[in-house]
Amino acid sequence: MHRELTIENFKCFSEKTKIKLGKISICLGSNSVGKSSVIQACIILRQIYEQAVLFKETQVKEYSVQLNDVYGLQLGDAEHIKSSKNREDICLRVDEYEYNLISDEHSPMEMTVKNRYDVAKMSSSEGLFSKGFYYLNAERMGPRNYQTINSKLVDGCGVYGENTIHLLSMLGPSKVKESKCFGLDENKKVGTFSKQVEYWMDYIIPGIEINADDMTELRISKMSLRQPALDTGFLSPYNFGFGISYVLPIVLTGLLAESGSVFLVENPEAHLHPKGQSHIGYFLAIMALSGVQVIVETHSEHVLNGIRIAALKNAMKPEDISINFFSVSVCGAEAKHKVENIPLNDRMDLEAWPEGFLDQEEEDLKTLRELRRR
């Protein structure tokens, strides 16, 4: 499991910035303060490792890193993502592995990087360098009646959830790791993927049943949904909004992710009611407790609270959870970004509450009181 990520001269992080990591790491803060940059830094480090594996039997030690169209990256020109024009390199470090990325003058949308580490040792450290790697973009696929079956081997839901229906159809009868199984209802004990997905989805969005089928002759996977309470039969996902389509790949990815791997997920709360946001936080904490290192970028206090509830209910340690608050302070024409790690005690209480941290409800209520006095 990774313990620390360091970023320097990358996007808003002009100075060396350290982000503490735990079994589950939460990146919180307002818009455009660096949360997504953490996810992107992890993806670049993963790409470096994949290049190292590709060339491990050769003498090649310098690799090209793509800034666009790999794991959904859309970073544009290398010169645009450097914080300082006076520095040639971007520095990324995870634990003891440090890399300096240099612009390629012949290919502005790529950067070059040298690897001085042993690939076998990197692989044994797991995390970003493990066999499994899972990432779900904030912009996931909305409701679809069907998805195209990829002709290549499908081992994940895809960056946008584009393989979810096919994967659910394929994995249906397979067994889920016991520590990931739904444990909040003693009557829900069937350990197959199809049933565990159903249990967890019902916990997050109650009253929905999912049916997934492959139509291999047409190279498509078809999904339909129904609400048993309404007795309408299975209907098109278009009748059920975005919440189900956005959260289903998160649940499926969490259940299939290998122990020792990393799961990056952006905005798991998207299109969910606050109760569902809390419950997806609970789910992600259980996946982290089962051995998957989870890194979450979110704007939702409900997701954080769901994680804290799971921690108390399942005896997670405070150090298993890393809460990182991203903020920016403006002084004149200069903006300074910082990351503050917020510790938890054994009761899962927050032991620090910086200005601007999850206090909007309090601010709004204060404004309402002031307006009512007029």
From TrEMBL:
It comes from the Bacteria. SUPFAM superfamilies: P-loop containing nucleoside triphosphate hydrolases. Residues 231-304 form the ATPase AAA-type core domain. Signal peptide: none annotated. One of its GO terms (molecular function) is ATP hydrolysis activity. Coiled coil: none annotated. Residues 3-96 form the Endonuclease GajA/Old nuclease/RecF-like AAA domain. Residues 317-368 form the DUF3696 domain. This is DUF3696 domain-containing protein. It comes from Acetatifactor muris.
